[in-house]
Amino acid sequence: MDILRTLAAVCVAGWLAISAFFSFAVAPLAFRTIDRTIAGQLVAAVLPRYYDWGVVLCAIALTASAVLAVSGRTPRWRALAGVALCAAMVCLLLWASIVVLPRAESARRARDDGAFALAHRSSVQLNGLTMLAGAAVLLLEAFSRPARRDR
Questions:
Q1: Is residue 52 in some structural domain?
Q2: Distance CA 94, CA 31 (A)
Q3: What is the C-alpha separation between 79 and 48, in angstroms, rounded?
Q4: pLDDT of res. 112
């Protein structure tokens, strides 16, 4: 079962790394260094894949966490917390991908700055919540003792 804990942690850590790099390095750099319209097109082209990777990695972590919870080999509270946090991450990413991203793209194409600002704010908030949930998963993992092995 240690492999499932490791798998969940690696998937969440991978997602956090991707998310932090894109959110704090790539997107701001693009808007600082190239024309705003082109930077917007670049970010719009990257976001669907960004969300796809997030959903896949978090779904793998959710599956691993759920198997651990069902196995009963981890403390119940820890297992349920891991499942809940991973499920929240998947749901937040799906909402951002399926609902918010199309709204933002529609507003961008229509040049509706107010609607775009609202969609962008929602996207940033969902991304932040997802990152917080991921950090909570990793902290939970870091401060949880591994299951005892009776030999």
A1: yes
A2: 25
A3: 30
A4: 95
